[in-house]
What does this fold into?
Amino acid sequence: MTVQVRAGLGERRLTAAVRDVFDRHQELRESGAVCEVRRVPVHGLAGQALVDRAAAEVDAVANRVGSALFRVLWLDAGADLSGKLVLLVHRRVMAAVPWPVLLSELVSAWNRGDSAADLVGALDA
It folds into this structure.
C-alpha cells in the first residue's frame, strides 16, 4: 500500500510510530521478525525517474532475505514537498491485521509522537 504524506514527516517520529504498531501486534513479530523503516531520498525526482527509483527500492527490500513481516519505505521528497510511504506487509499479517487497522494505528501512533502536530491531513489514504 502506498499513502501520500506531508512534507517534513520526520524520520525519528515515523520510526517510533512504526515501532509502536509493530509492538502492538503479535502477528508482526512472529518467529523473531523485525520491523524495518527505510528513508529513501527522492527530492528532485519526478515522473518516470521517481517511479523507477521507488520500484527499485521496493524490489530491493521485498527481495531481501530476512524476517521482516512489516517494512516501511519513506519516499522523502524533502522539507517542502509531500512524500509517500510504501507499506510492505506479508500476506499472513494481512489475514490477521487488515490495512484499515494498520493505517489507523500508524496515524494514531504518529499523532501521539508530537501533540502539537496533526497527522489527519498528513496521511491521505
Remarks:
- The beta strands are 2-5, 35-41, 70-76, 83-89.
